């Protein structure tokens, strides 16, 4: 099969996969969630299997433990988290106005004069922007939720996802072997190398960065709650979740927590310093312990590319797209790097300038003319006339 036919085949397969996702996005959520859960927990099942526990029994133990954790979180954490998130969205305009009022009271006179001469009502403008932003966030969450839950509701998600995860996790090794048997034999080693790179990128981000996000979210939520910060649970867990994109979680959560702390604790600077210290400690733990141990040195996903993938897949496929964004971004990154490496080795990149061209043979050195000799055989000194 020629290269053009191979490219056509794989492009057609990609187009069919995208059409399938778009057509069945409303019912795919529990299946994709089950696949992500199975992929996340596969190392745990392998660890138990290496210690002599049957694969099916190990899978059953893992799924039961995961379901219990989810049920406890839903019963204890979700109601409090939802209430805090809703109140935070409602109070955001008032919090911003209070912050501006405190800044206006403490700002130097020349800044006040500049603002006064500009004729801008900063408090009114910020209040309007905050109100619109809160409404936009609520609309976005509602659209993503309705797009992901159009047919599959929460109950079916909680029932179908563990079943899908159980079957996939129990048969994971057999599924991998079966797919390996479908690879084209002429390129099997090359495809396996690409698949290993994709698995490394996905594992580093889904398993490694996902675990980092959970640990950071718990650390921020517990720390802010113990510090007495209003909405501390919602801000902390939100900062941990946004840490999926490097630096975004700490930056967003830190700004919001410090802003709420200034409104709540003013003029007690020690409480605000504690909040700043919590985020500083979280970044120290992430940069020196969590990420090096759980993620590794490089996962091959640039933050800008990751943000684009999250926005693009979430916009097109809703909540299902958010679950698929990271695996697809990791796979696309590996494929692009592979294609680039092949391009850099091809004549399309090197051109003909690097090719070896035959060089003309060197011309022979001129032979000196024979000198005349006399009768005794000695060189003659007579000049030719």
- In DSSP terms, counting alpha (H) and pi (I) runs of 4 or more, how many helices? 14
What is the succession of H and E elements? HHHHHHHHHHHHHH
Summarize the biggest pleated sheet. Answer: none
**Contiguous uncertain segments of 5+ residues:** 147-152, 354-358
Topology:
Elements: H1 3-23, H2 29-50, H3 55-106, H4 109-118, H5 122-148, H6 154-170, H7 172-181, H8 188-226, H9 232-242, H10 248-265, H11 269-295, H12 303-317, H13 319-345, H14 347-350
Task: Kindly describe this structure.
By secondary structure, the protein is mainly α. It is 78% helix and 0% strand. The chain has a domain at 27-106 and 125-182. Helix 2 crosses helix 3 and helix 3 packs antiparallel against helix 5 (122-148). The longest helix has 52 residues, at 55-106. The model is unreliable at 147-152 and 354-358 (pLDDT under 50).
């Amino acid at each position: 099969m020629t290269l053009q036919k191979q490219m056509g085949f794989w492009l057609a397969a990609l187009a069919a996969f995208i059409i399938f996702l778009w057509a069945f996005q409303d019912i795919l959520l529990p299946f994709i969630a089950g696949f992500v859960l199975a992929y996340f927990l596969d190392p745990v099942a392998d660890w138990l299997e290496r210690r002599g526990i049957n694969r099916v029994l190990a899978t059953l133990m893992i799924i039961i433990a995961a379901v219990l954790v989810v049920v406890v979180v839903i019963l204890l954490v979700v109601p409090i988290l939802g209430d805090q998130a809703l109140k935070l969205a409602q109070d955001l305009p008032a919090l911003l106005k209070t912050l501006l009022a405190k800044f206006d009271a403490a700002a130097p006179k020349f800044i006040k004069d500049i603002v006064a001469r500009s004729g801008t009502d900063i408090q009114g403008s910020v209040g309007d922007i905050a109100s619109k932003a809160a409404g936009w966030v609520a609309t976005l969450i509602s659209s993503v939720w309705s797009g992901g839950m159009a047919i599959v509701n929460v109950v079916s998600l909680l029932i179908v996802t563990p079943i899908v995860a159980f079957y996939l996790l129990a048969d994971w090794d057999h599924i991998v072997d079966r797919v390996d048997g479908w690879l084209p034999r002429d390129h099997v080693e090359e495809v396996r190398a690409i698949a290993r790179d994709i698995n490394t990128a996905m594992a580093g981000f889904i398993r490694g960065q996902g675990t980092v996000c959970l640990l950071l979210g718990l650390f921020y939520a517990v720390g802010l709650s113990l510090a007495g910060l209003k909405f501390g649970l919602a801000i902390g867990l939100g900062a941990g979740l946004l840490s999926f994109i490097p630096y975004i979680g700490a930056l967003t959560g830190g700004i919001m927590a410090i802003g709420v702390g200034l409104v709540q604790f003013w003029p007690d600077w020690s409480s605000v310093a504690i909040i700043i210290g919590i985020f500083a400690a979280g970044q120290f733990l992430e940069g020196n312990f969590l990420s090096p141990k759980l993620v590794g040195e490089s996962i091959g996903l640039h933050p800008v590319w990751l943000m684009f993938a999250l926005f693009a897949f979430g916009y097109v496929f809703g909540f299902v797209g958010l679950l698929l964004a990271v695996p697809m971004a990791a796979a696309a990154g590996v494929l692009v790097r592979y294609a680039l490496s092949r391009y850099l080795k091809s004549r399309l990149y090197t051109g003909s300038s690097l090719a070896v061209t035959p060089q003309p043979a060197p011309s022979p050195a001129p032979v000196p003319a024979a000198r005349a000799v006399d009768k005794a055989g000695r060189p003659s000194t007579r000049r030719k006339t």
